[in-house]
Amino acid sequence: MEVAIVQDTVHIYSDIPDRDTMGGRLSRARDAAGLSVAELARRLGVKTATIQAWESDRSQPRANRLAMLAGVLNVSLSWLLHGVGVSPADEVRSELVNAVSSNLKRIRKLQEETSRIVAQIETDLARAQGSG
Fold it and tell me: CB–CB of 70/77 below 8 Å?
């Protein structure tokens, strides 16, 4: 009999890290947030060329700007820097799944209600035809 060893600790390094560059992750997070390069630059108080340099990995933001970037883009600092953690795409996908599931439940309820109404109409029609 084989015994499986289960680790009782999970840490941020348990997942496979995002292998993209920091600039690539920054660009993807900006897109997921629906911001243009100019809008992000304005929010951070930097030039558009600065954001473009960060996204193309020609330079990297200082620590204070990194924290601001993570906040504005709603991503963790660990994901932005090292690709470890939840990416914006994972969050968007999760929100989409929740929205689709919710709509499916609503449609099923409507379908059940419609089936009950059709059955009632059929019953009423049969009664009306029988008494006429």
Answer: yes
CA distance 120 to 132: 18
Q: How many of the other CB atoms lie within 10 Å of CB of 27?
A: 20
Q: What is the pLDDT of residues 45-85, one digit of tens each?
A: 999 999 999 999 999 999 999 999 999 998 988 888 888 87
The answer to whether residues 28 and 88 touch, using CB atoms and an 8 Å cutoff, is yes
Q: Is 11 left (phi over 0), alpha (psi -120 to 50) or beta?
A: beta
**Is 76 in contact with 87 (CB distance < 8 Å)?**
no
Q: pTM score, two decimals?
A: 0.56
In sequence order, which residues have a C-beta less than 8 Å from that of residue 52 and are 6 or more positions away?
37
Angle between helices 88-131 and 22-32 in degrees, nearest 10? 30
CA distances for 126 relative to 115, 117, 121, 122, 129, angstroms? 16, 14, 8, 6, 5
pLDDT digits (tens, 9 = 90+) for 76-93: 888 888 888 777 765 556
Rounded CA gap, 75 and 71, in Å?
7
